[in-house]
Amino acid sequence: MTAAMMRAYRENRSRFSVNDLAPYDGQWVAFRADGQRIVASADAIKDLAERVRAAGENLQDVVLERIEFQRDDVELGGAELL
Q1: In the prediction, which pLDDT does 70 show?
Q2: How buried is 79 (Cβ within 10 angstroms: 0-12 exposed, 13-18 middle, 19+ buried)?
Q3: Helices assigned H by DSSP within the chain
Q4: Of 6, 55, 47, 54, nearest to 27 (Cα)?
Q5: Opening angle at CA 62, ends 48 and 69, nearest 5
Q6: Which of 12, 23, 53, 71 stands the most exposed, by the fewest C-beta atoms within 10 Å?
Q7: What is the DSSP letter of 26?
Q8: Alpha-carbon distance 22 to 57, whole Å?
């Protein structure tokens, strides 16, 4: 990906709000290389490749990203209490 393409991707990708991405929390997402839309999503990256192809897209024309929101409700085990 060229520097200009990467710049366009970052600019367009940044337009997705937290609300836009909330349905994808905990999933792998394939964005178009220009960052303007989500092509496919899946819980496992191996399933994502199949969905990208099923959507008629080439795997070389997408950017893969794992969407994970930070949780405020951290669960601690016993080791953290020592």
Answers
A1: 79
A2: exposed
A3: 3-13, 18-21, 45-54
A4: 47
A5: 65
A6: 71
A7: T
A8: 23
CB hemisphere CA count around 60 (13 angstroms): 1
**Angstrom distance (rounded) from CA 43 to CA 51:** 11
pLDDT computed for residue 1 by the predictor = 75
CA distance 62 to 81: 43
H or E segment to which residue 2 belongs: none
What would the two tokens of residue 54 be?
A: 């099923």
pLDDT of residue 35: 96
Supply the pTM of this predicted model: 0.80
**What are the structural domain ranges in the chain?**
3-70
Radius of gyration of the chain (CA): 16
pLDDT reported for residue 78: 56
- Determine the pLDDT at residue 11: 96
Q: In what order do the strands lie in the sheet with 27-32?
A: 38-42, 27-32, 62-67
